[in-house]
Design brief:
This protein has 158 residues and is mainly alpha-helical. It contains six helices and three strands; from the N terminus they run ααβααββαα. Helices cover 64% and strands 11% of the residues. The protein has a three-stranded antiparallel beta sheet with strand order 1-3-2. Helix 2 packs across helix 3.
Length: 158
């Protein structure tokens, strides 16, 4: 049985869980010859709306230069294609090709099934999946409050 961290530190516990969940996800995706990073791109672009690179980078948890290299490979593998944004020609939107749609559909089926099994193993009735977005939002709000408190005040005399 894998070791569970004994530290009550929330960040450590979450990092430990994230590492194990991503390892499990990687194994599931490997069955479709897909990486976690590719899956993250496919999963956001899979809605058919077309997304700018900045939005994909945030979703995929990747810096822009790394994402560009990944997307270049995915374009070469005919999984995705780039098109100018019809509302802002300076932006490029990413879309799935039919081959990318097929991979997304197959991988999504495997990921959903595995995640359902994993969440069932927690026997928490889905509470974890509902609480994590709330935890993220609370951390984001706290970070924004801290940034605002640290920002120089415009009312201060110089």
């Amino acid at each position: 049985m894998p070791s569970v961290p004994s530290s009550p530190d929330l960040a450590h516990l979450l990092s430990h869980a994230e590492r194990r969940v991503v390892q499990r996800l990687a194994a599931v995706l490997a069955e479709e010859d897909c990486t976690v990073e590719e899956w993250r791109v496919l999963s956001i672009v899979g809605d058919g709306q077309g997304h700018p690179m900045s939005e994909i980078a945030e979703h995929a948890l990747m810096p822009a230069p790394s994402l560009t290299k990944l997307v270049d490979r995915m374009v070469a593998d005919t999984l995705v294609y780039r098109r100018p944004d019809p509302h802002d020609r300076r932006r490029v939107l990413l879309h799935l090709t039919p081959r990318g749609e097929d991979l997304h559909r197959r991988a999504a089926r495997r990921v959903r099934a595995d995640q359902a099994r994993l969440l069932a193993e927690t026997a928490d009735g889905g509470a974890l999946a509902r609480l994590l977005p709330r935890l993220t939002a609370a951390a984001d709000a706290r970070t924004a409050d801290a940034r605002a408190a640290d920002a120089p005040s415009a009312a201060r005399p110089v």
